[in-house]
Design a protein that fits this description.
Elements lengths: L1 E4 L2 E5 L3 E4 L7 H11 L2 E4 L10 H17 L6 E7 L7 H8 L4 E4 L19 H10 L3 E3 L13 H16 L5 E3 L5 H9 L8 E5 L1 H5 L23 H11 L6 E3 L8 H4 L14 H11 L6 H13 L7 E5 L3 E2 L4 E3 L2 E3 L7 E2 L2 E2 L1
Bound molecules: (4S)-2,6-dioxohexahydropyrimidine-4-carboxylic acid (DOR) and zinc ion.
Zinc ion binds next to loops.
Length: 353
């Protein structure tokens, strides 16, 4: 990485280790933003119906590849995942590994968008987890308890005590990505965990959780486009995330969790969870690192540590960003509807050249 001057950065092209791109008529529009910035992305399986088998993942990959052809890019690789259910067969694990699937996603049932078919209790999944541990296939975790009596802002911290710590005790060699962490507790847990091997535990961090605290959901009125899950937290949590992201600790890497929902389903009496950051996610991360004067640590977070965790080669292509404000459109096309991107109508300080 080189900080050519205060006004431009050259760095190895990054990857997005947590991304929602959906399916059908919106797929191409959603993908069109990510492919400009990222070489690869881990594609989340929470479609309706969810991607629960290798056959479904392969068919989904083919639909993505078709759209990539239409976008005239052969420079982007989707990394596929499976959706864990109470009924996932342990035999699917080795098949997944052989098919190049990079992980299996745990959604606690009811925790978030399209998680109804998720896991009701991890005790139903012991055989699958055992097989994953053996096959060296990571478990990607949406880490929030679904206990309705727990305050929504505490659900991640409670999940660590009730689910994650017991899981790690039972499966000490199981590789885990604690996805889109949002709290001081999660940041410290991942930073301080004692692991048998390197690369057993990682965490992704989104741009919105590095740049905003929960006030952003309520500033001047309710802001549905700042609502995602896990929900934004207090400032002390944002600062803890920023600290670990910029610390040079290889357990923390980039995952946008960009999650598109049509404008009408966000600006709604019961608005969907998800921030659509894909328009210029990289620019948002640059702002976050710049805010602490740690631009020198951005490249490893964005382009090296995730690849290392997943055991994939680092990218080699170089991209360049310049400090030139980019106005974010108020809306973007999304199939036959529109979507409101994060920062809509405002600007992002850095843009790709
Ligand atoms: O805000 C979110 N949106 N969090 C999730 O966990 C899922 C995602 C989505 O799929 O919309
Ligand atoms: Zn997600």
């Amino acid at each position: 990485m080189s900080l050519n001057s205060l006004a431009s950065i050259s760095m190895v092209k990054p990857d997005d280790w947590h991304l929602h791109i959906r399916d059908g008529v919106v797929l191409k529009d959603v993908l069109s933003h990510t492919v400009k910035q990222f070489a690869r992305a881990v594609i989340m399986p929470n479609l309706q119906p969810p991607i629960t088998t290798v056959a479904l993942a392969q068919a989904y990959r083919e639909r993505i590849e078709l759209q990539l052809q239409q976008l005239a890019t052969n420079q982007f690789t989707p990394l596929m995942t499976l959706y864990l259910t109470d009924n996932t067969a342990a035999t699917e694990v080795q098949k997944a590994k052989d098919a190049g699937i990079v992980g299996i996603k745990l959604y606690p049932a009811g925790a978030t968008t399209n998680s109804d078919s998720g896991v009701s209790n991890l005790k139903h999944c012991s055989a699958v987890l055992e097989a994953m541990q053996k096959a060296n296939l990571p478990l990607l975790i949406h880490g929030e308890t679904t206990d309705p009596s727990i305050d929504v802002f505490d659900r991640e911290a409670v999940f660590i005590d009730r689910v994650l710590e017991p899981l790690r005790r039972d499966f000490p060699e199981l590789r885990i990505v604690f996805e889109h962490i949002t709290t001081l507790q999660a940041a410290q847990y991942v930073r301080d965990a004692h692991t048998a091997n390197k690369n057993i535990l990682g965490a992704t961090i989104t741009p919105q959780h590095l740049l905003m605290n929960r006030n952003a959901i309520f500033s001047g009125g309710i802001r549905p486009h700042h609502y995602c899950l896990p929900v934004l937290k207090r400032e002390e949590h944002r600062l803890a995330l920023l600290e670990v992201a910029t610390s040079g600790n290889a357990r923390f890497f980039l995952g946008t969790d960009s999650a598109p929902h049509p404008k009408g389903l966000k600006e709604n009496a019961c608005g969907c969870a998800g921030c659509f950051s894909a328009f210029n996610a990289l620019g948002l991360y640059v702002e976050a690192f710049e805010s602490l004067g740690r631009l020198d640590r951005l490249e490893a977070f964005a382009s090296f540590y995730g690849a290392d965790f997943y055991g994939l080669p680092r990218n080699t292509e170089i991209i360049r960003l310049q400090k030139q404000a980019q106005l974010v459109p108020t809306e973007l096309p999304l199939g036959d509807t529109t979507i409101v991107p994060l920062r809509a109508g405002e600007s992002i300080a850095w843009s790709l050249t």
